[in-house]
């Protein structure tokens, strides 16, 4: 009984250390031994591209987003710009129509059914060989689209993900820690790309071959994650493109970021198990091991945390154990509160707040998955306007 309690108590820690430290270390070592190259450009011609911008009540951000997308360095006769309004009730659709003379098209969903359903519907009017999804609240530099598209000259590639660059006030709440995490995640994807394939794309800016997007996805799943999985089922790999930068302004409020994390993680878990066959290493080899390491084992500690806390309490003695857990929780809250008011401790606030938000989001996400909470509709995360 003691050994079992000990294993359960430390399982989340061991799994988390492997997922966040051990797995990247293995990737780094393997990348020094072998690297899979992307085939060089096959021609000077550019494929036809449809940029989709799914929006819901995005009147505050849509105009600058469209201005930036229209300024992209890409042949205009090979580019279709499509705004998909998920039943917006503000002036979002009126703003999109004002750009009709500049080639912007509007696909209006008659009722609000969620981002994934809107993205499914886009295929009926999209004309491009490639579908590029762009978040309405991010900035895509003019030179980012061509590198993203160019990698598709390699016929083995089905999905290409942009490189997120997180910006914001690093001294406010969890933004600084979030920016550091985004940089870490991009580094891991670079290592995965060197070894053949990433296991998840950036929802802010990614491209997908049209035929991969052909089959509709259930409303409570995420296309950015599912696109990579569907590509692998079709025998194609996915890559991260360092030159395809997208600037992501991070919200300065942990409460807002918490809601986004819960939604993103819960949809990711559902998407993973929807394509659970890809976690079979006997059939999908190294991709399966990478998928389990990068995704499942990052999420699993949150599911195990309550049982782990109980096991720790048993090991320490029920009364003393639960007191220890309570004291640790209070101490964490005190650190966050005090560090905000004491300048010399201010550096502790962002990491402590970020970790607390991530752990809370993980628990809530699993709870939403277990109780099958509906997640079709979406409330886009409000972000500061990015600076050009």
Could you characterize the architecture of this molecule?
The structure is a single chain. By secondary structure, this protein is α/β, with parallel strands linked by helices. The chain has a domain at 49-254 and 274-286: Spore Coat Polysaccharide Biosynthesis Protein SpsA, Chain A. Helices cover 51% and strands 14% of the residues. It contains 11 helices and 7 strands. The protein has helices spanning 2-33, 62-70, 92-97, 115-122, 145-150, 175-195, 223-233, 254-274, 281-316, 318-341, 349-370, and strands at 49-55, 79-86, 104-109, 130-134, 157-167, 205-209, 237-249. The protein has a 7-stranded mixed β-sheet, sandwiched between helices. Helix 1 (2-33) crosses helix 6 (175-195) and helix 9 (281-316) crosses helix 11 (349-370). The longest helix is centred in the last third of the chain and has 36 residues, at 281-316. The protein is globular. The termini are far apart. The relative contact order is 0.14. Residues 170-174 and 338-349 have low confidence and may be disordered.
CATH topology of the domain at 49-254 and 274-286: Spore Coat Polysaccharide Biosynthesis Protein SpsA, Chain A
So what's the CATH class of the domain at 49-254 and 274-286?
A: Alpha Beta
Structural class: alpha/beta
CATH architecture of the domain at 49-254 and 274-286: Alpha-Beta Complex
State the distance separating the first and last CA atoms: 60 Å
Read across the widest sheet, the strand sequence of neighbours is: 3-2-1-4-6-5-7
Order of helical and strand elements: HEHEHEHEHEHEHEHHHH
């Amino acid at each position: 009984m003691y050994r079992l309690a000990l294993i359960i108590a430390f399982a989340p820690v061991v799994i988390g250390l492997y997922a966040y430290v051990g797995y990247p270390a293995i990737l780094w070592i393997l990348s020094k031994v072998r690297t899979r190259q992307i085939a060089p450009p096959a021609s000077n011609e550019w494929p036809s591209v449809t940029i989709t911008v799914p929006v819901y009540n995005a009147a505050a951000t849509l105009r600058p987003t469209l201005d930036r997308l229209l300024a992209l360095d890409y042949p205009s006769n090979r580019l279709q710009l499509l705004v998909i309004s998920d039943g917006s009730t503000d002036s979002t659709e009126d703003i999109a129509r004002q750009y009709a003379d500049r080639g912007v098209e509007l696909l209006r969903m008659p009722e609000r059914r969620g981002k994934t359903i809107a993205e499914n519907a886009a295929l009926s009017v999209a004309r491009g060989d490639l579908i590029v999804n762009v978040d309405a609240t991010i900035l895509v530099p003019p030179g980012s689209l061509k590198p993203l598209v160019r990698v598709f000259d390699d016929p083995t590639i089905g999905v290409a993900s942009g490189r997120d660059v997180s910006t914001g006030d690093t001294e406010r709440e969890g933004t600084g820690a979030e920016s550091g995490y985004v940089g870490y995640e991009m580094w891991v994807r670079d290592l995965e790309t060197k070894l053949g394939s990433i296991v998840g794309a950036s929802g802010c800016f990614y491209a997908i071959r049209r035929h991969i997007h052909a089959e509709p996805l259930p409303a409570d799943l995420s296309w950015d994650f599912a696109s990579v999985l569907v590509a692998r089922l079709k025998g194609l790999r996915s890559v991260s493109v360092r030159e395809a930068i997208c600037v992501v302004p991070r919200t300065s409020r942990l409460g807002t970021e918490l809601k986004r994390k819960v939604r993103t993680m819960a949809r990711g878990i559902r998407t993973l198990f929807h394509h659970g066959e890809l976690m079979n290493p006997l059939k999908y080899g190294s991709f399966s091991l990478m998928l389990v390491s990068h995704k499942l084992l990052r999420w699993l500690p949150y599911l195990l945390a309550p049982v782990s806390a109980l096991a720790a309490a048993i090991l320490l003695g029920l009364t003393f154990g639960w007191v220890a857990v309570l004291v640790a929780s209070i101490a964490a809250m005190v650190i966050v509160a005090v560090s905000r008011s004491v300048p010399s401790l201010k550096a502790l606030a962002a990491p402590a707040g970020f970790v607390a938000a991530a752990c809370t989001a993980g628990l809530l996400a699993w709870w939403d998955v277990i109780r099958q909470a509906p997640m079709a509709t979406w409330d886009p995360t409000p972000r500061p306007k990015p600076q050009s």
